[in-house]
Amino acid sequence: MVWYYRDGDQENGPVSKAELQALIKSKKVGAQTLVRSVEMNDWVPLIDAVRGTTAPSRTTPPPPPPPDRAPEMKFEAADTPVDDDFGELAMEETDPAPEEVQSKDMAVAGAGGASSTVVCSQCGRSFPQDQVIAYDDQMICAACKPMFVQKLKEGVGLPAIQNYAGFWIRFVAKFIDYAALGLVQWAIMAALSAIIMPNLLQSSDPSQITGVFALIGISALISLTMQVFYYTFFLGRWGATVGKMACRLKVVTPEGGKITYMRAFGRFFAEWISGIILYVGYIMAGFDDEKRALHDRICSTRVVKKA
User: Fold this and answer.
1) Are 50 and 107 in contact (CB under 8 A)?
2) 190 and 296 in a common domain
3) What is the spatial distance between Cα 274 and Cα 284, in angstroms, rounded to a whole number?
4) Closest CA relative to residue 133, chosen from 38, 151, 144
5) What three-state secondary structure class fits 285?
6) pLDDT above 60: residue 76
7) Verdict on whether the full-model pTM lies above 0.85
8) Based on the domain organization, do 21 and 141 belong to the same domain?
């Protein structure tokens, strides 16, 4: 979602959610800073945008809610997942002091009074839009809210802000890897050929042609073994091959964690699929929101830029 914010009388933006969170972290944007998204017509304080409420009128009191309307769901301070990079946001309406906003765009959906129904991403049931909360692209009903918040507190499925590596920087890293592997493989095969080929060429026995094919097979086996070891060891140990290290890239899990040796092993063979379909699997990284290639989707990995 794209956001705009005001600094005095000056309107700033557009900025992404990640950029807005960075402004919150640097204290350039506070709880009372006026903001609006592309879907909003009016400016509201950031704390109200986080809760999905609109700013109350300065001249007339807000009308009472209809008696048949379910109570509006709010995140109390004790239920709000706290990110280490952000301060706590006071969610009590009676506390006027501005606080740093730490919530990741969690708000009440349908604050404008929309009557359409949405499906809860946790239980799968349908609810009126004004009776659910929105967290990124997920809709959460009142019954599922406590468990969902607890998962966020425990870090289960908590989205992280990642600086994903684009197609071209990954292309450069892959080129460096191919060059490094090719050089080592050439040196090994040159030494092996220098030992075996003279004997084969000097022999007049037609059956020696079998030795030539054997040499080709050994070459292919050595090449495959080196590639498997190279990608599995480097990605499992450091999260980056030589090429990615040179470009300051790293392969991580969706949460930003280190991948295992087993996932690194599987990712190597998943890259074959990206290659055999005319490299379309690699090209997908240029069009994906998280810059994922096909093998990233298969193995649930991301390639990010190191800070």
Assistant:
1) yes
2) yes
3) 9
4) 144
5) helix
6) no
7) no
8) yes
